[in-house]
């Protein structure tokens, strides 16, 4: 009897323990899952999860070249006073130097045109022409295109007249106030000035009709026309000891300077660069030859004014 009681007690104690652990003889209870941490909210059904866009690269600052180019505010519309840079003493008659003397007296215009060159406020539209019918003989022939390439080069040079945009010119004597120029070559009838290369006889005839004696040698200007004498273009000027390329640069810049409104200048001092408006082929006055309006540092090369 005592053995049964003891066994029953053991059984009851075991069941009590099992009840404490989850029950005894009843339905098996599964352990509750561990309490989860805070749940990440899920997107509503049917809503796509947002994608992660890559961080955009910083937009680069626009470079100086991307800035819009300043446009000229006015186109030059004025005739140039008639003039020719002729020495007081008549030049000796030209010798036979192989230069073609005569053409047909008509002109061909260089085709096409250019964009505006420079940022000056006054636009100069120029047209380039070559006399027809020049018989070149042994002389290398110039064409409207080859003459044009030289004129374009001179008028777009960094120290040419376009430099005035960075260094505007003010001169009361010349009636200039903050003056600056840009250039554009055109081939139509809307031009400010035309630059012609012509035989000596044709230059004499056309310049003579405007009252100037170019003596078979010199160039001239009148109205909207600049006449470049073929003799000087091919041979340069006696006593003006510069390469022929420099002579051509000089005559274009000098004659265009007159068209822009400049009178002649005098040498500012012995050994200094001559202003381009000095009649350097006649008298340098102690200066050294120079073919550009501006120095390499952007300074306008000037001197005392002289009547043209």
Automatic annotation (TrEMBL):
InterPro entries: DUF3152. Residues 78-88 have a biased composition (Low complexity). SUPFAM superfamilies: Metalloproteases ('zincins'), catalytic domain. It comes from the Bacteria. The keyword Signal applies. Residues 51-61 have a biased composition (Pro residues). Keywords: Signal. It holds the Pfam family DUF3152. Residues 99-284 form the DUF3152 domain. This is DUF3152 domain-containing protein. It comes from Longispora fulva.
